[in-house]
Design brief:
With 93 residues, the protein is α+β, with helices and mostly antiparallel strands. It is built from 3 helices and 4 strands. The protein has a domain of 34 residues. Helix content is 35%, strand content 23%. β1, α1 and β2 form a beta-alpha-beta unit. α1 runs parallel beside α3. The radius of gyration is 14 Å and the shape is globular.
């Protein structure tokens, strides 16, 4: 039986702002979790894209995987680790 997460890219997406201290804190706390599970992190500055700013404006930072919002404002490390645990390890990691 294949996991619900099999085949999905292991990339966190963070909607952020360059000047936002909460954004920097979330990224600093996320990096060790991403390393632990072998995930990458993409960061999008919502101030650089009108559509992103309109959608995420006051919620940043927002942590996403695909269309799934994992948390916003502060990293929920317990929830993120539980979410990552649902993904099978890739061979060679």
């Amino acid at each position: 039986m294949m996991s619900r997460a099999a085949g999905r890219p292991r990339t966190f997406t963070v909607m952020s702002r360059e000047w936002c201290h909460l954004c920097h804190e979330l990224l600093d706390e996320l990096k060790p979790i991403a390393d632990e599970f072998g995930w990458s992190i993409e960061v999008f500055d919502v101030d650089q894209d009108a559509e992103l700013e309109e959608k995420w404006n006051e919620l940043v930072p927002v942590l996403l995987h695909g269309g799934t919002e994992l948390c916003h404002y502060h990293l929920d490390a317990v929830a993120v680790r539980a979410y990552c645990a649902g993904f099978p390890l890739e061979s060679g990691t």
